[in-house]
Ger(X)C family spore germination protein
Amino acid sequence: MHRYRKLLLIALAGISVLLLTGCWSRIEINDNAFVTAMYVDRLDNDQYEVSLGFPLPNRMATGAMTTNTSTGNAYSIVSKRAESIAVAIRKIRSDLSREITWGHCRVVIVGRKMAEQGIGPMLEFASREPSFHSKSFLFVSPTKGQDISKLTPVFERLPSEVIREYAQRHVTLGATIKDFLQAEASGGDMVAGMLTIGKIEMVSEKGKLSTWVGTDGAAVFKAGVLVGELDVMQMRAGLWMQGNMKSSLNSLRSPTDHKMISFLIQSSKASIKPHVEGDRIWFTIDVEADDDIISSESQLNLLDPENINMLERMLSEQLNGRILRAIKATQALEADAFNFGRILEWHYPKVWEKNKNQWREMYKNCEFVVNSKIFVRRTGTEKNSMAAK
């Protein structure tokens, strides 16, 4: 029995060694070119221009390294033009000394012309490339997508990190490739963050005129095509409806002396519920948020509970109006950009199945009831404005 046990252990050890033969498709890390951002444009000749952003590890100083990084940027942008996105990427690959790897790509920027003609080809590529991250954020450039790659990163090392932080910090709408692919199943209506671009003199660049990129409103897509825009307030209303509004400043005028009082939003949550009554479909949107008063120019007594209740009502009414204006803007475009149809499908699948073919027409006339509850949790120790003393 002891002999058989010994033979069994030897056999198991031999099998284990056979399983340690390595990976046939392994690529050394030094042979990889890691894509961090993808910029896609449509040209006048119906060709595509694809630009990929890559970090340059040999120019990134870490720890005690003494490499001189002042000789150039720590990243590179490589662009090619072709009749399709896949062919353009193949051309880029042919000119690189390393193999393209998509695992670190978190940002996709499409130019305005590309958005206006439809982002279907971009979604097609993303859905078929097995290593492409579906959680990559998609933004729209007001000009060419490639223009965004020229931004000067000040606090970050790479341009893509600047854009990605906008979405992760909920400064703007963080629509992902996955969101767009899911929206395709119900018509392709979606909303994505719009960027803005310009040139300013930067102290960090020794006063040189440099490219600056920031956030703006939002791009409204109907069936994957850009059909309109939301302004900044309407874009922020979208963040409220998603429950993603955090660390944001809100202001209103005091009802007594019309001086400004500013509030800092600490947290928020939202829920959307559809209701079906016969042929009538309507939605309720409930939003709750906690605010702190961070400044006041008014003589309003902020230690009086009745005054605080009055400010809470004013903040709630203000938010109700902003959310309804954002929804009405998408209704005017007949684009269910905030995906109320998907919420209806989740709660009432039979109702959705019956109405999905004419949903855009129905959405245009849908009723919405917004119930906002803003609570002022902290007012500070001063009951009146110190500036007016």
Summary: The two ends are 96 Å apart (CA to CA).
